[in-house]
Amino acid sequence: MKTIVGIAIALLMSLSALAVLVAADRRADLAEWKRLTSLQPATPRRFTQEMVAGLPEPAKRYFLFTIRSGTLLRHVAEIDMEGRISLGTKDAPAYQPMEARQVLAVPEGFVWTMRTLGGMPVSGSDSATWTRFRIFWLIPVARLGGDRNHALSAFGRYVAESVFWTPAALLPGPGVTWERVDANTARVTVRHEDLEQAVDVTVDREGRPVKVSFQRWSDANPDKEHRLQPFGGYLSDFRVVGGYRLPFRVEAGNMFDTDDYFPFFLAEVTEIRFPGASR
């Protein structure tokens, strides 16, 4: 009897400790979310064609498609999404339905909170400084971050996503430069503190960004070693939100443009907001 009581007490203490950890993680998510939304310009400028007049033609086409003339330049966005995420490999993807929310504030950071809606419940968050996911809402299965590898990988992700959802953050200026790659592709390079990331944006005739690719620092490879490797995806279903034309469908994955490409992220956006847009 004493053994059973002891096991029960130990189990209860373990569950209590995990619940405290989950609560602390959620507070951190909320604090970082609030910090990033507070970075929205209080008195944003309005977009004019003169702002991109000196850019390479594909980059100019990108901005003239994604930002309407006179639009207030909002650098921070909140994105709600649903879709599928792979918990497996290319050969056995084990896609699970998911829903997620994200705040994106390039170059400062992002927070992405997610939960699966089928199979084994997985939930947690990604940010510029951590990756924290749990199964059954309590049990940690990934707690990473706080090192150079994570910072480099995360920076690549959220700089690329700014091409999708916050084009105003990529207008030429301090820390942001553009160059021509070919007739339909331009490369944006973003520098922030000691981080630097280049992303290639391929546009169609109208300037719609249909393909985004870059070299991402990642250990998503058979050797589980951090190194630069291709990452990217495709954008579609563009809709107008607050003067911006933004993709509501995104497919992305590792080893992009190779035979090993695996789109582990398939998202349908349900809403995009620009915090502070009512001011």
Our count of domains comes out at: 1
Quickly name the level 1 CATH class: Mainly Beta
Strand order of the largest sheet: 6-5-4-3-2-1-13-12-11-10-9-8-7
**Percent of residues in beta strands:** 35-45%
Structural class: alpha+beta
Radius of gyration: 20 Å
* Number of helices, counting only DSSP H or I runs of 4 residues or more: 3
Based on the structure given, which CATH architecture is correct? Clam
Q: So what's the overall shape? A: globular
Quick tags:
279 residues; outer membrane lipoprotein receptor (LolB), chain A; single chain; 23% helix; 13 strands; 13-stranded antiparallel sheet; globular; alpha+beta; 3 helices
Explain what the structure shows:
The chain has 3 helices and 13 strands. The protein is an alpha+beta fold. The chain has one domain (2-273): outer membrane lipoprotein receptor (LolB), chain A (Clam), CATH 2.50.20. Strands 6-5-4-3-2-1-13-12-11-10-9-8-7 form a 13-stranded antiparallel β-sheet, with helices on both faces. It starts with a helix and ends in a 6-residue tail after the last strand. The model has no long low-confidence stretch (mean pLDDT 92).
Fold topology:
Elements: H1 2-37, H2 57-66, E1 76-86, E2 95-105, E3 109-116, E4 122-127, E5 130-135, E6 139-145, H3 148-165, E7 176-182, E8 185-192, E9 195-203, E10 209-218, E11 227-241, E12 244-254, E13 262-273
Antiparallel strand pairs: 1-2, 1-13, 2-3, 3-4, 4-5, 5-6, 7-8, 8-9, 9-10, 10-11, 11-12, 12-13
Summarize this, please?
23% of the residues lie in helices and 43% in strands. The protein has 279 residues and is of the alpha+beta class.
